Amino acid sequence: MMQESYCKRRDKFFTVWFYFIVIWTTIWIQRSPLQALEYNYPYHDPYFATVTTAILDDGPDPRPKSLIVRVPGLPGRNNLPSLEGRGELSIALYRQNRPAPLLFILSGIGTNPFFGIATYLARLFYEQGSHVVILPSPMSWNFALSASRSGAPGYAPADARDLYEIMQKTISTVKTRQDVQMTRINFIGLSLGALEGAYLSVIDADERKIGIEKYLLVNPPLDISYALKKLDAWGALQSKFGTEKSKGIVAKAIGIVQSFSDEKRDDPAVFDKLAKQFAGFTTEEFQYLIAADLQTLLPELVYVTQLIHDQKILTAARDKLRKRLGEASDLTFMDYSEKIAVPLWRVQLSEPEADVESFMKKGSLAPILDRLRGNSKVQIVHNADDPLTDKKSIEELKDTLGDQVMVYPYGGHLGNIWYPQNREFALRLFKSAP
Questions:
Q1: Contact indicator for 215, 195 with CB cutoff of 8 Å
Q2: In this structure, is residue 69 part of a structural domain?
Q3: In this structure, is residue 20 part of a structural domain?
Q4: Interhelix angle for 321-328 vs 298-308, to 10°?
Q5: % residues pLDDT > 70 (the chain)
Q6: What does the H/E/C string look like for the chain?
Q7: Main-chain dihedrals φ then ψ at residue 201, nearest 5 degrees
Q8: Which one, of 93, 78, 171, lies nearest residue 131 by Cα?
Q9: Number of folded domains in the chain?
Q10: What is the 3-state secondary structure (H, E, C) of 328-376?
Q11: What average pLDDT does this structure show over 150-162?
Q12: What CATH number should be reported for the domain holding residue 221?
């Protein structure tokens, strides 16, 4: 009897424990939809994952034919010394020969429409039947010249307003000049472009001048100051390495990337070969490569900003292009923010006492989270190991926006955007648009 009683109690205990496990697991799956799925992205070094984006573009021939379309810029920006006739915004258009959805793609800091990860996505969605327009980053020289009213981009709320205006002009231009017939309009933002896209969603919800139906925002920086300070710290590794070693690191990486120019861009076997080529790089060398790549985009932006507003940041004569670019190359992202952008933003926004940290805080994602919450048009994708974003901030974003946020465990900063599961997620999201 005692043995039977013990067995009954034991069976009851294990039954209760089993149901507890089932309930707990169900809750955990509901809170963490990604972890409930099998996710086998193979590269768990977030810095290497980030560097892999260097081989992502529209791939080897045959490539989809794209057009360079010039969109009218701001009045008075077409006649600046040394940049006469360049005051229009250049976009890349991938045009279908029938009515189709129009997808805007906006990448990160300083990017242009003709190279890089945006062209990979453009090909992907063009082959799925969309018209595609790739916009230049607001922090590119072309956007600063032709579309940035402040002439000093970098403050996301203002940049999104400028983007909204140029997107309306773009829609009108491609309709009239290229006979683009669009059935709906969607948006993909990457990195800083994702943050700017979040602000776009707020503007369009209020004004409805475009009527964007779906937003996919990938790896938005959640704290701009955190991201820029990281980049500057990684760029400062040049002092530790020395000039010659720094050049050698970059040259070796460029050689590796160029050796993949004829490879298929989303073939896992290609990325395995790339991983073997980069196997000898250290974490600090990866960090330096990430920062150095972005740093190359800054001098042209500084040059243009100082043509629009001569703040005496550059001492060489205005007609000495090479010397002025050389001077600009010594500036960091925080230098740009503190010495160039913030003084102009104070005037533009009538906030004479504001400092760089307050602008960064107001221009991050947190101030508009309440506007994003519950907006079914907005989907955010992030990676838990993104080295440009604090992990706790990603967890808080997921807690705040719930099912609007998908968090992958690996991928670094944009490094897994080609991965089949990520790719299918994006394609499925836009196919579901009405």
A1: no
A2: yes
A3: no
A4: 120
A5: 91
A6: CHHHHHHHHHHHHHHHHHHHHHHHHHHHHHHCCCCCCCCCCCCCCHHHHHHHHHHCCCCCCCCCCCEEEEECCCCCCCCCCCCCCCCCEEEEEECCCCCEEEEEEECCCCCCCCCCHHHHHHHHHHHCCCEEEEECCCCCHHHHHHCCCCCCCCCHHHHHHHHHHHHHHHHHHHHHHHCCCEEEEEEEEECHHHHHHHHHHHHHHHHCCCCEEEEEEECCCCCHHHHHHHHHHHHCHHHHHCHHHHHHHHHHHHHHHHCCCCCCCCCHHHHHHHHHHCCCCCHHHHHHHHHHHHHCCHHHHHHHHHHHCCCCCCCCCCCCHHHHHHHHCCCCHHHHHHHHHHHHHHHHCCCCCCCHHHHHHHCCCHHHHHHHCCCCCEEEEEECCCCCCCHHHHHHHHHHHHHHEEEECCCCCCCCCCCHHHHHHHHHHHHCCC
A7: -60, -35
A8: 93
A9: 1
A10: HCCCCHHHHHHHHHHHHHHHHCCCCCCCHHHHHHHCCCHHHHHHHCCCC
A11: 96
A12: 3.40.50.1820
d(CA 326, CA 340) in angstroms, rounded, equals 17
Instruction: Tell me the two tokens of residue 170.
Output: 């773009």
Residue 127 falls within a domain, yes or no? yes
Q: Which amino acid, residue 174?
A: V
Q: What pTM was estimated for this model as a whole?
A: 0.90
Range of the structural domain that residue 328 is part of: 46-431
Q: What is the pLDDT of residues 79-128, one digit of tens each?
A: 988 899 999 999 999 999 999 999 999 999 989 999 999 999 999 999 99
Categorize the per-residue pLDDT at 284 as very low, low, confident or very high, splitting at 50, 70 and 90.
Answer: very high
In a domain, 11, yes or no: no
Tokens of 197: 């896209």
41-52: burial string, b at 16+ Cβ within 10 Å, e else = bebebbbbbbbb
Q: What is the pLDDT of residues 8-48, one digit of tens each?
A: 443 443 333 333 333 333 333 344 444 446 899 999 999 99
Token pair belonging to 291? 């920062």
Q: Are strands 89-94 and 131-135 parallel, antiparallel or unpaired?
A: antiparallel
Q: How many other C-beta atoms are found inside a 10 Å radius of the C-beta of residue 230?
A: 20
Q: d(Cα 222, Cα 392) in Å, to the nearest integer?
A: 10
CA distance 305 to 311: 9
- CA 220-55-214 angle, to 5 degrees, is 35
